[in-house]
């Protein structure tokens, strides 16, 4: 098994009696029916259907943890809180309180989400897991770039500050990743997302690309008429014209 400390992710805690209903009304996926032992990818959009953040939604005893790009966590927590109104919900940026590790080539038998005290193990792919915990410390000597490269090869995008408000969910293949539910009720940008799906209006799509030797690009950079979403070790996810 190999592992690395992950610093590019932040973590929001969404708690309270109405946390599930609140997230269901805000995110692109079906949170109302999310089982307690399963994670879900989801997006949070503007009214124009552009992604403000991508989340890995992790059920917890108190509500939910939302894994999000670290550089977005404070602003997203603040902006999401503006929609609480009178709901019994609390949103807190707890990025500093939780340590996050990526494990790969692991023989763990966790099928989805498994809690052990204040530590949760989350399966995110074939022999790939996240381990997130308060005060967690693990002897990992591998590079976070290796983890990022595996996320790229799995086609899992991370919306960061550099790519916020640039893409509708289908541009980063969210429907293929199971991150959009087209049967659920309204959420911000839902009409735009549905129109893009059923009228074939998506003219750009995310694909994995190899960068020219010696070229280093970061999220938000332009590449051959497209935009880099994520990059590591000479490979990248880029939203390109169809």
Question: In a few lines, what is going on in this structure?
Answer:
The protein has 4 helices and 14 strands. It has 242 residues and is of the alpha+beta class. It is globular, with a radius of gyration of 17 Å.
Please, what is the CATH homologous superfamily? Probable tRNA modification gtpase trme, domain 1
Number of helices: 4
| Cα end-to-end separation | 38 Å
Helicity level, as a percent range?
Answer: 10-25%
Rg, nearest Å: 17 Å
Spatial shape: globular
> Strand order, biggest sheet?
1-7-10-9-8
The strand count comes to: 14
Q: Give start-end ranges of low-pLDDT stretches.
A: none
The CATH architecture classification is 2-Layer Sandwich
Query: How many separate domains make up the residues?
Result: 1
Structural class: alpha+beta
User: Helix-strand pattern, N to C?
Assistant: EEHEEEHEEEEEHHEEEE
Mean pLDDT: 96
CATH topology label: Gyrase A, domain 2
- Characterize the largest beta sheet: strand count, sense, and whether it forms a barrel: 5 strands, antiparallel
| Proportion of residues in β-strands | 35-45%
CATH class annotation:
Alpha Beta
Could you characterize the architecture of this molecule?
By secondary structure, the protein is α+β, with helices and mostly antiparallel strands. It has one domain: Probable tRNA modification gtpase trme, domain 1 (Gyrase A, domain 2), CATH 3.30.1360. Helix content is 15%, strand content 35%. The protein has four helices and 14 strands. The protein has helices at 19-26, 73-81, 144-153, 190-198; strands at residues 2-5, 9-15, 40-45, 51-59, 63-69, 90-93, 98-104, 113-116, 119-125, 128-134, 204-210, 222-223, 226-232, 235-241. A five-stranded antiparallel β-sheet has the order 1-7-10-9-8, with helices on one face. A hairpin with a 2-residue loop joins strand 9 (119-125) and strand 10. The protein is globular and about 45 Å long.
């Amino acid at each position: 098994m190999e592992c690395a400390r992950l610093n590019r992710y932040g973590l929001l805690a969404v708690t309270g009696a109405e946390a599930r209903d609140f997230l269901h009304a805000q995110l692109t996926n079906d949170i109302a029916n999310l089982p307690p032992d399963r994670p879900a990818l989801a997006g949070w959009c503007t009214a124009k259907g552009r992604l403000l953040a991508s989340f890995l939604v992790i059920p917890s005893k108190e509500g939910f943890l939302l894994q999000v790009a670290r550089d977005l966590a404070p602003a997203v927590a603040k902006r999401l809180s503006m929609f609480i109104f009178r709901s019994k919900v609390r949103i807190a940026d707890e990025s500093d309180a939780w340590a996050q590790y990526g494990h790969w080539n692991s023989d763990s038998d966790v099928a989805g989400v498994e809690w052990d005290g204040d530590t949760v193990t989350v399966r995110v792919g074939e022999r790939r897991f996240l381990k997130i915990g308060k005060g967690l410390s693990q002897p990992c000597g591998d590079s976070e770039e290796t983890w990022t490269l595996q996320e790229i090869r799995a086609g899992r995008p991370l919306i960061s500050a550099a790519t916020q408000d640039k893409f509708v969910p289908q541009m980063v293949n969210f429907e293929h990743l199971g991150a959009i539910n087209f049967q659920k009720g309204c959420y911000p940008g839902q009409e735009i997302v549905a129109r893009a799906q059923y009228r074939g209006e998506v003219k750009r799509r995310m694909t994995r690309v190899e960068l020219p030797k010696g070229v280093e690009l970061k999220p938000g950079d332009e590449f051959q008429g497209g935009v880099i979403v994520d990059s590591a070790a000479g490979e990248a996810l880029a939203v390109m014209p169809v």
